[in-house]
Design a protein that fits this description.
about 260 residues, Deoxyribonuclease I, Chain A, six-stranded mixed sheet, 12 strands, about 25% helix, about 25% strand
Length: about 260
């Protein structure tokens, strides 16, 4: 099974650029998207018109227009599709930040984790509410069956995961609190698939700031992850970042699993 996760920074924008079609050559079984930035009504009208090789298309949009939103495209119909209500409750409104496919023997979760923002205005929310709630949700899912969790976590976990750690220490995405929150998720029984296979690999970035043309200079951050429950480690064949796929300020990330 090949799964790819991508923060598209606007689904309609990336469709106009033809970037989703570029992923078709990768023969993706499950494609998880974040930051679709499209309302429920727009997604309802748009998805049936797409000429993409994914017959199954589910989404969850934010109440606020043009904000957040996630989707899962798949080759196979899941047994159940549901929104993680715990995350909706913890945000106080529906920000369209999570969606789950239950395939019977496997959960696939796509998440768009809140950014702490300029001036770290949502850092306290991340630390006290979101991160503990998210860790509890994922722990409960993994206790039921093997689980894959992918998406934009808006945090570089280790110094190796960004180009300039010293300059960015205590900036949004690299505060001690955010990194500790990510560590707690791993401690509930998950593995960072990329670091599991490539613990020392450098310049493996998935996001570059648009403000400073950082992508051209390859000054980036790895803030997009595919996490797997520990019982899936024997099935993990590869983990990758498709840095050559353009269309967003994020690069797609993915894994290959070989099930018995």
């Amino acid at each position: 099974m090949r799964l790819i996760s991508w923060n598209v920074n606007g689904l309609r924008s990336v469709l106009k650029k033809g970037s989703l079609e570029d992923l078709s050559s990768w023969k993706v079984d499950i494609l998880c998207l974040q930051e679709t930035k499209a309302s429920h009504e727009i997604m309802e009208a748009l998805l049936p018109t797409l000429s993409l090789p994914y017959p199954v298309r589910h989404f969850h949009s934010a109440e606020r227009k043009g904000y957040a939103g996630v989707a899962i495209f798949s080759q196979r119909e899941p047994e159940r599709v549901f929104v993680p209500e715990a995350l909706v409750h913890c945000t106080g409104s529906d920000e369209g930040r999570g969606l789950i496919h239950d395939y019977g023997n496997l959960y696939v979760v796509t998440l768009y984790v809140p950014n702490s923002g300029e001036g770290l205005r949502r850092l306290d929310f991340r630390r006290r509410i979101w991160d503990p709630c998210c860790a509890a949700l994922l722990r409960d899912l993994a206790a039921q069956k093997p689980t894959v969790v992918c998406g934009d976590f808006n945090v570089a976990h280790q110094e190796i995961d960004l180009a300039r750690p010293e300059q960015n220490h205590e900036n949004a995405g690299f505060t001690d609190q955010e990194r500790e929150g990510f560590s707690r998720i791993l401690q509930t029984g998950f593995v960072d698939s990329f670091r599991y296979l490539y613990p020392e690999k450098r310049e493996a970035y998935s996001w570059w700031s648009l403000r400073t043309a950082a992508r051209a200079r390859h000054i980036g951050w790895r803030i997009d992850y595919v996490l797997i429950s520990q019982n899936l480690c024997p099935a993990l064949q590869d983990a990758f970042i498709l840095q050559d796929v353009l269309g967003s300020d994020h690069a797609p990330v993915g894994i290959e699993l070989n099930f018995p």
